[in-house]
Amino acid sequence: MLTTDRKPTVEDFPTAALVLAGPWFRSHQFEARPAVVVCPFGGPEFEGTATMCVVWYFTLGAPEPGDTVQAMFPHELTPLDDTLTTMDEHVFRDIVRGLRRGRFAYDDGEAFRAAVRQAWRERTGLADADPAARHTLHRD
Fold first, then answer.
1. 128 vs 94, which has greater pLDDT?
2. Strands 69-72 and 33-40, how do they pair?
3. What single DSSP character describes residue 32?
């Protein structure tokens, strides 16, 4: 959870974190809307050094770099108290459909796609939401 006594960092916004942020278009920032963190800017290999997050404004359409996928500074993001597993089922379905129609630059979306698949398994009961419990299912 973010505290008010320090500036947020990229580490505060892991892949698949739901946020509110204002997208940019032609030098103008629009009002905040729901988005999801795709990865640190530059890809997973920049996880410890990135200064920006790649976010997808899923309510604006399928992922397309520049239009619905943008790099944002952490201070521009407000975390939401929701997850891919607990969010509204219709919105989650829109995210899944959008993923099939769109693209991320430089394969940046691989970890995000994996998080969406895991959330789908948890939502449908095919996987346990508790990672520790997941390991106990296969013990004899």
1. 94
2. unpaired
3. P
